[in-house]
Design brief:
Belongs to the NAD(P)-dependent epimerase/dehydratase family. This protein is α/β, with parallel strands linked by helices and 344 residues long. The protein has ten helices and 15 strands.
Length: 344
């Protein structure tokens, strides 16, 4: 293995590309790189899920270029990756999208990562950050206790689309490792837990509870919780993740995989009560309903916590935004967005 340069990439004055940048994590990451003095940020996206609304707050910055392209088309990636210092790769199909179209989802999550790695090698990109997921630990009763980076994948009883998603992220991680071993391609894999925050979309099953609860209580309905609400969810605020992406680029770490989760897990019932409270309706007690067999809902029987201590050691990162504070910001953003739409 030949190592050509150090793994640390300076943000100030640097040139970067965020692949899958026109969405939740991507838009926040572009914002963070600009805030820290990047001289150029290319935002590469095929807009299959992303939208121009999600990037309207950053595209007026002269340092941002939007590249409309598909990671399944290698020539487009090669052209876009010319002259960069670092790449943050986010484009993917998550569980709900995988359920709709598994074949394209597997192509994007596997062949797509291979193409990104190939573009890194061809264009001598100093460092790649790859967004993986806590889906690599699987779902169901066996997922319990502290989930650390060595915890294995549990698939028994999980919905097929969740297994396809988790397994495809495991493969994506190994494609990065392979590129490091063969070509010395520096990389850091961040295993995000469930993301929430400004520019939230409707494709992440767990975050749907937040928007559905806010919508219900605003209309005067009791929010619904599937099952008994005792299962765990471990969220992370999107701004904390944007910081993790930036710190992973800057750090000396390479060839590492770390969890990036929020401060503490929460149960569904606690989450729904908290959202109702922050929406001004603490009196709206959640209604417990039976699961709809036709709908993919990610429930995990075991109480778990996604441990993020390794991220502190490897890249100096720890989450800063509490669930209460992050939810306040997120709900306020939804209110502002709705107000704008109703005025237009
Ligand atoms: N959102 C979450 O709760 C969550 C949790 C864990 C991990 N992750 C991972 O974090 C990353 C970012 O999450 P997000 O919620 O911002 O993602 P997202 O679903 O909004 O997708 C990111 C972007 O990728 C683009 N994209 C999809 N296919 C593409 C292709 N073939 N070529 C170019 N662009 C393409 C989409 O248009 C979208 O703008 C993903 O890799 C996801 O798997 C997300």
């Amino acid at each position: 293995m030949k190592e050509k340069h150090t793994p640390s990439v300076r943000i100030s004055g640097g040139r970067f590309m965020v692949i899958g940048g026109a969405s939740l994590v991507g838009s926040a990451t572009v914002e963070e790189l600009l805030r820290c003095g990047a001289s150029e940020v290319r935002l590469f996206d095929n807009f299959s899920f992303g939208s121009s609304d999600a990037i309207s707050h950053i595209i007026s910055d002269p340092r941002v270029t939007v590249v409309s392209g598909d990671i399944l088309r290698l020539p487009q990636l090669l052209a876009a990756a010319e002259g960069l210092d670092g790449i943050v790769h986010l484009a993917a199909f998550m569980t709900l999208s995988m359920d709709q179209d598994p074949w394209t989802g597997l192509n994007v999550n596997i062949q797509g990562v291979q193409n990104v790695v190939e573009a890194c090698r061809a264009c001598k990109i100093r460092k790649l950050i790859f967004a993986s997921s806590n889906a690599v630990y699987g779902y169901g009763e066996s997922v319990k206790g502290d989930l650390v980076e060595t915890t294995p994948f549990h698939s028994v009883g999980a919905p097929p689309a969740a297994i396809l998603y988790g397994a495809s992220k495991i493969i994506g991680e190994q494609i990065c490792r392979h590129a490091y071993q063969k070509h010395g391609q520096h990389y850091v894999v961040l295993r995000y837990s469930t993301v929430y925050g400004e520019r939230q979309h409707y494709r992440a099953a767990n975050a749907l509870y937040i928007v559905e609860t806010q919508d219900a209580v605003k209309k005067g309905y009791r929010p619904k919780v599937v099952g008994d609400g005792s299962e765990t969810k471990h969220f992370v605020y999107v701004g904390d993740l944007a910081r993790a992406n930036r710190m992973a680029l800057e750090s000396d770490a390479t060839d590492v995989v770390v969890n990036t989760s929020g401060p503490e897990p929460i149960t569904t019932l606690e989450l729904v009560r908290l959202v109702a409270d922050l929406s001004g309706r603490p009196d709206m007690e959640p209604e417990l309903v039976r699961p709809d067999p036709g709908k993919v809902r990610l429930t995990s029987g075991g109480a778990f916590r996604i441990d993020h201590a390794a991220a502190k050691n490897a890249i100096g990162w720890a989450p800063e935004v509490s669930m209460r504070e992050g939810l306040k910001r997120f709900l306020a953003w939804r209110d502002r967005t709705e107000e704008k739409i109703s005025q237009s």
